[in-house]
Amino acid sequence: MTHAEPIKIGTRGSPLALKQAHAVADALADASGGAITGEIVTFTTSGDQLTTERLINSGGKGLFTKEIDRAVDDGRVDIAVHSLKDVPSLLPDGQVFVAFLPREDPREAFISRVCDHPRDLPNGATVGTASLRREAQTLAMRPDLNIVTFRGLVETRLNKLDAGEADATYLALAGLKRLGLAHHGTPIPLEDMLPSPAQGIIGVAAKDGALSDAALAALNAISDTAATAAATAERAFLKALDGSCRTPIAGHLFRDRDGWRLVGEVLDVDGSRRWRAEGRVSSGASASDFETLGTTVGNAIRADAGDDLPAFEDG
C-alpha cells in the first residue's frame, strides 16, 4: 500500500486564513486522489499582533507574512497559503508561487447600519478603515467624511460598528463569502472602487526546488489559469510602482470578449488627486504578456504622476 505524502501548510491562525488553508489542503487531496495530505501549521504574525495602528507605522504588508516566510525558508513548512493582496510585491529570495486558486469575488463589501453605499452616508459621517487605499478612495467620493482607524478580524470590526465606533466600514467581499458572512455587506461595483491588486486570490508559495514532483503536479492541477493571469498582471503593476507597495494603490484585471484589460490607479491619501491608466492584451496572452501589461500600466502612472507620486503604505 502506497503511503500518502504529507505536506505541511503554513498559515495565519485567523478564521479566514484557516478556511483558506483547509481549502488548499482539500483541493490537493482531491487533485492527487489522496496521495497528498495537508497538515495545517498556524502562525501568529506581527500583523496579527498589531490591533490598533496602521501597517505603515510598523513595517507594512510584510507583517502578515514574514513569520510564515521564515518557516518556508527553514523547512518547518512546505508551502505557505496567503491572501495574495497581503503579500508584498516581491517574495523572499528563493521562494516562488506554485499555485493560485480560483479567484473569489474581488469587490469591496460596504458595511453600514445607515445605508448601502458610501455616497449615501450622512454629511460628516465616520468611516472606519486602516487601509490608506480605501481611505483615499472614500475621500475621493466624499471629501466630507471622517476616517478613523479600524483594525481587527471580521467579527471585531462588525462589533465595532455595533458599538457605534463608526457609521460604516469596508471588508473584502471575498473573505466574507469564504466565511459565510457575505450578508453583512453590500458589494461596491468595481467601477466605483477598484480593489487592492490580487484581492480575492489565494496564493501558494514554496521554496524553489524543495517540493516533490508529485506535490508540484497536484499544485499545478489546482492552480487556476484566470487567477494566475490576474495575479501576474496585478502584482507586476504593483511592483512597477513601488517594490515595497508604499502607495494608496488599486488595480484589477478585467476579462472581456476581446481579451484582458488591466485598470490601475494611485491616489493621494486625501483623495484630492488620482492617477489612472489601463492597458490590454489579447485572449491568447502568455505569462510574459501579463507581466509586461502590469509593468506598462504601472510605468504609465509613474510617468504621469512624476515627483507627485504618493508614498504611503496601503494597509
Structure description:
This protein is α/β, with parallel strands linked by helices. The protein is built from 9 helices and 13 strands. Helix 4 links the parallel strand 6 (126-128) and strand 7. The protein is globular and about 65 Å long.
How many DSSP H or I helices?
9
* Main sheet properties: 5 strands, mixed
Anisotropy-based shape: globular
Strand content: 15-25%
| Uncertain segments | none
Strand ordering within the main sheet: 2-1-3-10-4
Oligomer: single chain
Cα radius of gyration in angstroms: 19 Å
Structural class of the helix and strand makeup?
Answer: alpha/beta
Mean pLDDT: 90
What portion of residues is helical? 25-40%
**Distance, first to last CA:** 49 Å
Can you count the beta strands?
Answer: 13
Order of helices and strands: EHEHHEEEEHEHEHEEHHEEEH
Which characteristics define this entry?
32% helix, single chain, 24% strand, five-stranded mixed sheet, 9 helices, alpha/beta, 315 residues
